[in-house]
Design brief:
With 157 residues, the protein is α+β, with helices and mostly antiparallel strands. The protein is built from 3 helices and 9 strands; from the N terminus they run ααββββββαβββ. It has helices at residues 3-20, 28-34, 114-120, and strands at 40-47, 53-58, 63-69, 74-80, 89-96, 103-112, 127-134, 137-141, 152-155. The strands form 2 sheets. It has a 5-stranded mixed β-sheet. A 4-stranded antiparallel β-sheet has the order 3-2-5-6. The longest helix is centred in the first third of the chain and has 18 residues, at 3-20. The relative contact order is 0.16.
Length: 157
């Protein structure tokens, strides 16, 4: 089945759901669960152990640009998952010398996709995905507890 055919099927199903929504007798709480894909997300990136960290995050639709994070500094961005669950953000992480004139190590990590949002991000409004960049790799947590409690390693340098 081509992409266009799949997209058309999704649009038809969505329209049927919207047209019959009033007949479903769904409570407001249940409707919120049904439409969880439209909930807002916040991704937090924190430099926990790297002296000079350059981060460049982007998706197919948004380029967040370069961020230079010193130790314990962080940045975050807010967005909504798209209807097809294909929203994906990935970041290029570079450990650089103090004047950013030489890259010491570099890697690319997917920091948000359908799996990460469903399993590794916290629930709430908004749902939070916390990332900690460390000497031995990249860790994600849904509740930002003190490291290493609840943190899962999702990548290495």
């Amino acid at each position: 089945m081509s992409f266009t055919s799949r997209l058309l099927c999704v649009i038809v199903v969505f329209n049927v759901l919207v047209l019959t929504w009033g007949d479903l007798n769904i409570s407001k709480a249940d409707s919120h669960k049904f439409l969880f894909m439209m909930d807002p997300y916040v991704v937090h990136i924190t430099n926990a152990e790297i002296d000079n960290l350059m981060v460049h995050c982007k998706s197919n639709d948004d380029d967040l640009g370069d961020k230079n994070l010193i130790l314990e500094e962080s940045f975050e961005w807010h967005f909504r998952q798209n209807f097809l669950f294909t929203t994906e953000f990935f970041c290029t992480f570079r450990s650089v010398t103090p004047y950013a004139d030489r890259v010491i190590k570099s890697t690319i990590v997917t920091v948000f996709d359908a799996y990460i949002s469903a399993i590794l991000c916290g629930e709430g409004d908004p749902s939070n995905c916390y990332w900690s960049v460390r000497d031995d790799g990249f860790y994600v947590s849904k509740d930002n507890k003190t490291f290493p409690d609840g943190w899962i390693q999702r990548g290495k340098w």
